[in-house]
Design a protein that fits this description.
The chain has ten helices and 13 strands. The chain is α/β, with parallel strands linked by helices. The chain has two domains: about 220 residues, 3-Layer(aba) Sandwich (Rossmann fold); about 60 residues, 2-Layer Sandwich (Alpha-Beta Plaits), CATH 3.30.70. The strands form three sheets. The protein has a nine-stranded mixed β-sheet, with helices on both faces. The protein is elongated, with a radius of gyration of 22 Å.
Length: about 290
């Protein structure tokens, strides 16, 4: 099975829309599975028209510290060990207090405080949701619980779940919709990928963020191509992106125009190639270059 990851330097440039339309076209030729690894704000399922998931699995990929001693006077001098500022001092009981909303489960307090003072415990910080789309292929989506941490580990768990389903379904291609940026969930998304599609738009912010995320992709030595969305909004800047791609020998897989059809497709919970069939030719060209 080949894994293709779609990512972007910044949010809102059309990553999920691109993933959904490519998935519909790929599914006509090959057995595929789609994976939404934007666990902070997943919406690929919505673009594919999935309103309700078939299964929801609670997972624990994060830990939080809990004070388990009634008193610990000597702990006061070490409460600053937490770089996240999650530890306060309970003057009345003369022991540390851990703010569960600030605790990242790094374990520094467990190392520094006397043995038996604090304990790291697993917490349910996310869910993995699965469903079958109306286009015949499955989707696996992760959802980080509000206020919890560990999105990178959640992405890894989501991909592992998807790989099990893909093996059962005998899928040939896994399409991964990554989160934007260059953080842990992005790194977890692109690890193990065979190819990366980076999507951007003709704005200075988008190009700057694109250059940063491509450095991450190059670090893992993964081949990649570029899609320019809304290319006709700023044609002069589109040429600048094209020059950048040419200088860096980055293949441009395709250019998508600005069109309200994309917005209307999202409103109607459909990939744009389904909502407006005139876009099938453009996405088919991207599909051909990708294959």
């Amino acid at each position: 099975m080949k894994t293709i990851t779609i990512l972007s330097g910044k949010g809102g440039v059309g990553k999920s829309s691109l993933t959904a339309s490519l998935a519909v076209l790929l599914a006509k030729k090959k057995k595929i599975i789609t994976v939404d690894c934007d666990v902070d704000a997943p919406n690929l399922a919505l673009v594919l028209g999935v309103k309700k998931f078939k299964t929801k699995e609670k997972i624990q990929t994060s830990e939080k510290a809990r004070v388990i001693t009634k008193t610990c006077p000597e702990c006061k001098k070490n409460i600053d060990v937490c770089i996240f500022g999650a530890i306060d001092w309970d003057q009345r009981n003369r022991r540390p207090i851990i703010n569960k909303f600030l605790c990242e489960g790094c374990g520094a307090c467990e190392l520094v405080f006397p043995k038996g003072t604090v304990k790291l415990e697993k917490v349910q910080n996310a869910t993995i949701n699965t469903a079958k789309t109306s286009y015949g292929f499955p989707i696996v989506s992760g959802q980080l619980k509000m206020g919890e941490s560990g999105s990178g580990k959640v992405v890894t768990a989501v991909k592992q779940k998807a790989e099990k389903i893909a093996k059962k379904e005998k899928a040939e291609i896994m399409l991964v919709d990554s989160s934007p940026g260059i953080g842990c969930p992005v790194i977890a998304s692109i690890q193990g990928s065979d190819y990366v599609i980076a999507i951007t738009e003709p704005t200075p912010a988008a190009l700057n963020d694109l250059q940063r995320v491509l450095q991450v992709v190059e670090h893992f030595n993964i081949p990649y191509g570029l899609v320019i969305n809304k290319w006709d909004v700023n044609k002069a800047f589109t040429k600048k992106i094209e020059r950048f791609a040419k200088e860096c020998k980055i293949p441009i897989l395709g250019k998508l125009p600005y069109d309200k059809a994309f917005v209307n497709a999202l409103v109607n919970l459909k990939p744009v190639v389904v909502y407006d069939k005139k876009y099938q030719d453009i996405f088919c060209e991207i599909f051909k270059k990708l294959i």
